[in-house]
Every structure is written in C-alpha cells, then in structure tokens.
Amino acid sequence: MDVTKGCEIVVSVQGHKFQTLNLNQIYQKPHIFTHKTNSIKIYAGVGVGVVTKMGLKISPNYPAINPVPLTALKNCFEKFIKDRKNLHLYCKVSVTDGEQIAKQTANSKVGVLGGISILGTKGFVKPVSATAYLDSIKTEINFAMENGFKTLVFTIGNSSFQKASKSYKKEQIIEIGNFVYDSINFRWGTLSLVLICGIGKLTKISQGFKNTHNRFGSIDFKAVEKATDKNLDGVISMKRVCEMVGREKVEKIMIQKAKKQLKNWFDKNIEIIIV
Q: What's the whole-model pTM score?
C-alpha cells in the first residue's frame, strides 16, 4: 500500500509571509505565480519536502510540489482573485506527520528533505492502481540518469536490496516491488541494468510473469521439471527444487531462461544476480 494514502494535506493562504515553514527550516525559494497585478508565492510547510538535488521535475531549493498540483493551486488562485488588483498572497502546503511518513519513502535518496512530495500527473488517483508506486520508480530512474550513473540496479525484496547495498550506491538502487515489466519498460537510455532477486521471483520471470505478485499466478512446477530434467512430483517450492537438483544448476538454468524472456520483451541484455 502507498504509505501516503489517507494523508491529511493542509493548505494555508494569507496576505503576509509565514514565520514558520518547514520544520527543518531548509532554505527554500517559493513557486511564484502572477496574474495581472496579483501574485502568489507557494511554500513547503511542515511535512512537505524541499528539493535539494538535480534530476527531479522540480529544481533544487523549491518545494517538492509537482507541476500538476502546482497548476491546480494556480487555477484556484486565478479563480479567487477575479477582478481584484494588487493582491499579493502567500500559500503554504503542509502534510500532517509528513516528516515521519517520508522516512518510509525514497525521498531522502533523491534529495527531497523535510517531508513528502506532493505528486500527481493527471489530478486523479485510482484507488486500486499502482500509479503512485510506479511514479516513484520512474522518478528514481530519472534521478539516477540525471546524476550520471551508468548502471541501474533493480531489486525485488529486502534480501536483494541488502545485497545490492554492499556493492552499489544507494542512488542507483531502485526497489521495484513486483513490477518487473513496468519498471524495465521505463526509458533508461543507454544505461546498463542489473536485476537482483530470489530464485522464486526469477523463476516466475523466466515463465513470462510480468508482475511477480502471487495474485498473478504461481510457479508452474511442471515447467520447472521439464527445464531441470528432474522428476519433481509433489514439489511446491523452489527451495526444494534446489535441494533436489542442485542450487548451482537451477540458478544457471533460470538465469538463462529469464535473460531470454527479458530479451524477448525489451531487446536488451540484462545482468541477473540471485540472492
């Protein structure tokens, strides 16, 4: 579940500068909109982050409020002022407990400090969609590309992430959950890609699963039996397959099959590491 679901967003507007903004008092420049003789300055309040690194949709030192939410605020401002003149307003966007919630996101990794980001690309979120998670993955990919990394590292699961952390920098490691196809399908130019996952998830990929979550199906052990040329009657786990066939042999087979599947999908050679 998206950790930001159900967050309380508070927008304050007044005619003079705010004395208190972000809890960490991170230096920030306001987003500024003008309309005729009127203007509004939009700041990050408590619980909303400030961008501190290049590579995001918002430039450094500005509140982490994406273009679509900013446009919504701008539209409200223009509707409110109507025929008024020389009206100069200050707006503060805050999120209750946003600093604590941000610790469960990748914000600090991509340089958003002090709270969460106010995201949005269309203005509407489907409750059953994975849009927010995929948007986060795409943001991390773009950030890594903009900051000069030559290799992206996709991890599935905590063990994979821990293994990746020993060899790669945190900014190039992206936790993709079960979204294998969608994540790899994002634009990542000429960068090389490393996929780190367990044998179970890898087996699913080798069998054509674009999403490795259980709700999309289980491993076909008849297909595993055929691939390993071993009678696996009654076996229901890849751990047991490795015990019966030999882990090294199973890993070699599944890596080869998964690479072939990924090559068919994306016409790219992707390095695979098993944990």
A: 0.70
